[in-house]
Design brief:
By secondary structure, this protein is α/β, with parallel strands linked by helices. The chain has 13 helices and seven strands. It folds into two domains: about 250 residues, NAD(P)-binding Rossmann-like Domain (Rossmann fold, 3-Layer(aba) Sandwich); about 30 residues, no CATH class. The protein is about 50% helix and about 15% strand. The structure holds nicotinamide-adenine-dinucleotide (NAD). Nicotinamide-adenine-dinucleotide (NAD) binds next to helix 1, strand 5 and helix 8.
């Protein structure tokens, strides 16, 4: 059920590849809340994924763009401003890719051409989107821009690889640009640090199934789903959050504040050999609970 939180608002949603994509869920929720938007993705993602169907469903267009190319991003803004015959109110940057992760290159054996691509696609593209938006004066006052991040920007997680560096840069760009855009145009910029989510990009991380189970056990509220992330995006695009800017906002069921949980400890102990289990003082405590 919608609450008309985005009634009359217009936007651009980058990164809806298929039904599992976080951006896809955001598009659906924004529509429910009364927003109109254009979609954008790479030409190959448009061919291989289902974003054209999503566009048809919401009577809009998918504008092809490789987000590393400024000319492509300019086309997205031109097409969008033309479609709405005016400025927009929100942007979702839901873009990430690491060729090193894809090719299973460990962090101490990175391919540097790939590393540059990771940074360009997953972090610099956010700056390019913001700089282009500002150049075109495309966003209304009190507009809102969100990029999706991950806790690997702050903490080291096994196999997240060079995407951790990209996310750290992404969050920093939100702060640095947030200062300028806030001061000059009253536009807010935030990143949402989302739980692991079973999407095409998420599932590409080695050991993703185990990570998903671990974070579920560690988070008092459980992992946040893509649909819940979409709900959160709606609130941040709405007028109810106008003074939130330059923040990295954890949307992770509490994971980021945890050190060890009962459920995770139980599983960890189960995985120890039986004779070790008996000797383990934590196990005895757990049995007593
Ligand atoms: N899935 C997770 O576990 C998780 C957790 C935290 C944050 N995130 C972030 O959420 C965002 C969306 O990812 P997702 O999980 O929905 O997966 P997804 O695979 O559905 O989306 C990633 C999108 O990035 C697009 N993309 C890749 N290269 C591009 C380029 N050069 N130009 C433009 N677009 C390009 C892809 O086409 C795809 O649509 C990413 O930034 C990701 O890092 C994901």
């Amino acid at each position: 059920m919608g609450y008309n939180l985005l009634k009359g608002k217009k936007g651009i949603i980058f990164g809806a590849l298929n039904e599992k994509s976080i951006a896809w869920k955001v598009a659906e929720r924004c529509h429910e809340e009364g927003a109109e938007f254009t979609l954008s993705n790479t030409p190959i993602a448009i061919r291989m994924g289902n974003s054209s169907e999503l566009a048809k469903q919401f009577d809009t267009q998918v504008i092809p763009a490789d987000a590393t190319k400024v000319e492509d991003i300019e086309n997205v803004f031109k097409g969008t401003l033309e479609q709405f015959n005016g400025k927009i109110d929100f942007i979702l940057h839901s873009i990430g890719m690491s060729p090193n992760v894809r090719k299973r290159k460990p962090y101490d054996e990175l391919n540097y051409d790939f590393f540059q691509k990771t940074l360009d696609i997953s972090a610099l593209s956010f700056h390019k989107v913001l700089q282009t938006a500002k150049k075109f004066d495309a966003i209304n006052e009190w507009g809102s821009v969100i990029a999706l991040s991950y806790i690997a920007a702050q903490r080291t997680l096994f196999e997240y690889n060079d995407m951790a560096d990209a996310k750290a840069a992404l969050e920093s760009i939100a702060r640095s640009f947030g200062y300028i855009y806030g001061r000059e145009k009253k536009i807010r910029i935030n990143t949402i640090s989302q739980s692991p989510t079973p999407t095409t990009a998420g599932s590409g991380v080695k050991g993703f199934g185990g990570l998903l189970d671990f974070t579920e056990r560690m988070s008092p509220l459980g992992n946040a789903t893509a649909e819940e992330c979409a709900d959160y995006c709606v609130t941040l695009f709405s007028d109810l959050t106008r003074k939130i800017t330059m923040q990295n906002l954890y949307h992770d069921g509490g994971f980021s504040s945890m050190g060890m949980s009962y459920r995770a400890m139980q599983m960890y102990n189960k995985s120890l050999e039986c004779k070790d289990c008996k000797e383990n003082p934590y196990n005895q405590e757990l049995e007593e609970e």
